[in-house]
Amino acid sequence: MKSIDLRSDTVTMPTDEMRRAMANALVGDDVYGDDPTVNKLEKIAAEKVGKEAALFVPSGTFGNQLSLLTHTRRGQEVIIGKENHIVVHEVGASAVIAGVQLRTLNTTNGTMSPEDVEKAIRKDDIHQPETGLICIENAHGCGAVIKIDNLKEIKKIAEKYSLPVHMDGARIFNAAISLGVDARDIAKYCDTVMFCLSKGLAAPIGSMVAGNKKFIDKARKNRKLMGGGMRQAGIIAAAGIIALEKMTLRLEEDHKNAKYFASELSKIPGINVRFDKNDINMIFFEMKDNIIPEKTFINKLYEKNIKINKAEDGEYRFVTHAGITKEDIGFVINSIKELAHLTGNLY
């Protein structure tokens, strides 16, 4: 029986075309700048987000932390939404690697208020750390996208105080589809952007950091410092090229599947779907009155080869990706209905 993995789009498998490209990739030593496939990937990546240059890095977390390290000095402070990936899911790396403090702000589904951002910028006070960077995330890990007007306002504030803006754009191409714009129209409101080649784009390894040439030159040296200098990396970069050139074109299918999934889930009594967090390929929902106990829910679905994560802050998250079809969604929906009947809590 097929395994249906809804835990994340990070579980997406590389395509057959990617595997062939990886096997036949032209390679060289990337630390010397000699890998033609990596060089090609970096050029394509920079063009995709409208930046001067780009750098291939092992992961999204690596790319975010490399950006913080390159933008800031030790002891500075970074303004960031409190639910952002850098805060919640990167193991406190900003304190260890860049040596910076995070000043976290309340958000509405990942969106920071420009007024709050401006108020959080530190004044010239002997007792306070210096603000060194503003970080935003789009699309946000909560499943929502940040509107262009908000990005524009925050960038305007950053320029007023001569501060750089870094975007965690792990799913920037999902955000672009949801907003009906090009990824360049989002990235223009940040100085640097990190985006993943894995997740919905299906490459097995790697992310990109893009910005101006001066920043990327500095980041390249910091990548070496962090242990991210790779040698014949063209083998994995080959999959990244296909991810950017082809897999970005199919993401809308994942969005449509996620909206269908959310609609069908919402028809099950006792399940409350968060449609305000259904902008991309994610479905968030909670079960009212615990209609199916969490342990039962996870284990019984697993017995049907359906993999899900445990609830976080009372909400479950399902993620659609290239490995999930509409038929798979129907099977999951029917399985949940069956479980609710078995526990006697559906009707």
Automatic annotation (TrEMBL):
<dbReference type="InterPro" id="IPR015421">
    <property type="entry name" value="PyrdxlP-dep_Trfase_major"/>
</dbReference>
<dbReference type="InterPro" id="IPR001597">
    <property type="entry name" value="ArAA_b-elim_lyase/Thr_aldolase"/>
</dbReference>
<dbReference type="InterPro" id="IPR015422">
    <property type="entry name" value="PyrdxlP-dep_Trfase_small"/>
</dbReference>
<dbReference type="Pfam" id="PF01212">
    <property type="entry name" value="Beta_elim_lyase"/>
</dbReference>
<protein>
    <submittedName>
        <fullName>Low-specificity L-threonine aldolase</fullName>
        <ecNumber>4.1.2.48</ecNumber>
    </submittedName>
</protein>
<feature type="modified residue" description="N6-(pyridoxal phosphate)lysine">
    <location>
        <position position="199"/>
    </location>
</feature>
<keyword id="KW-0456">Lyase</keyword>
<comment type="similarity">
    <text>Belongs to the threonine aldolase family.</text>
</comment>
<keyword id="KW-0663">Pyridoxal phosphate</keyword>
<dbReference type="GO" id="GO:0006545">
    <property type="term" value="P:glycine biosynthetic process"/>
</dbReference>
<dbReference type="InterPro" id="IPR015424">
    <property type="entry name" value="PyrdxlP-dep_Trfase"/>
</dbReference>
<dbReference type="GO" id="GO:0006567">
    <property type="term" value="P:L-threonine catabolic process"/>
</dbReference>
<dbReference type="GO" id="GO:0008732">
    <property type="term" value="F:L-allo-threonine aldolase activity"/>
</dbReference>
<dbReference type="InterPro" id="IPR023603">
    <property type="entry name" value="Low_specificity_L-TA-like"/>
</dbReference>
<feature type="domain" description="Aromatic amino acid beta-eliminating lyase/threonine aldolase">
    <location>
        <begin position="5"/>
        <end position="286"/>
    </location>
</feature>
<dbReference type="GO" id="GO:0005829">
    <property type="term" value="C:cytosol"/>
</dbReference>
